[in-house]
User: Fold these one by one.
Assistant:
Number 1:
Amino acid sequence: IAVTPKAPDNSAAEAKRETTIWEAFNTNVASTPVKVNRYIWQASLEVLDFMPIERIDPFSGIIVMGYGTPPDGRTAYRATVHVSEPALDARALRIALATRSGPTTAETMRALEDAVLSRARQIRRDDGLL
């Protein structure tokens, strides 16, 4: 009786190799999708619609807006919005706001974040998912 050697099962070895600390550093970040909250994303675009969009990347959750003056305002602002996670939560949203003379106050940025989050909740309520 001839016995042919069985090919080695590499699935266990592959699984073990992928769980090493070194594999964590070698992962392809570009292939890892970032999930952003669609309500915060849409609300950001609506609240900041007076600013032109310079760059937008839904995969990283970044919106870069150029200088624009709000209705009935005199100061031009620019903003960078970062939506970092899928939860409709204040931790998921960060906005950096600046004027031509430099960054705005923390209170102004917080008020803008509150406006975006309020609008996001309205959009979600209108979808009937609240």
Number 2:
Amino acid sequence: GVNDLFFPYGDISAERVSLFRVYDRWGELVHEARDFDLGDPVGGWNGMLKGKVMNPGVFAYVVEVDFVDGVKGKFKGDVSLLK
């Protein structure tokens, strides 16, 4: 029940997430969500692919954010999936 979803969050300067993608170490897309509020778990990744729990590992992510001043930002990093 703790950290069951991975999703982008931020402060009030960010308006919406226009794109959120998670990739495995081979570059396969394992999650994609578009157009949701920053900090809203509706766009989050639950560590699954096609209904099956993924093996533990490191996954890359890309987030495109629309800020309230009209600027668009792109952020990337990695997250570890643990069981």
Number 3:
Amino acid sequence: MMLIKSEKIIIVGQSGSGKDFLLKELSKKGLIPSVKITTRPKRLSEVEGINYKFLTNKDFGNQNLIVEQSFINDKGDLWKYGISSDDFDSSQIFIMTPGELSQLTISNRKRAFVVYLDIDRQVRESRILDRVDNNDSVIRRLNADEIDFKDFSNYDLKVTDPVFDIEMILSLMS
């Protein structure tokens, strides 16, 4: 059953803030999640086509993307992320970075409800360390997030409670 919401929901938050958890919970409510495209290696817990579409750099370059961002991990590897135009049109829930969010057109931003998960660094660090993820340094990610989210204000709802209420978030969307 598809939940009827006119707005798209965009989840923004630092590493370990609960973005994937919120996406999964909203999906259980019937909202259609976006599947981001990336060139980074798959984590052990991730499923191709569910968490991400994992592509080579060459295949990534052939995509029609609405947003795109690149990162260099602590080993010097270039990782690209993006959301295809088709996926943006057909999906209802997205996870984006502040940089990706800033790439949306004004009309696409107006169609979205942005939830910023602003969770305490110690909570996020603990969550990340509990994952089996050796792709990148935890400290590098947390420090990069501090820079990426400095002065971030492009959101409709800011959540600071690490045990947030999904129903409350849904009730605020059109």
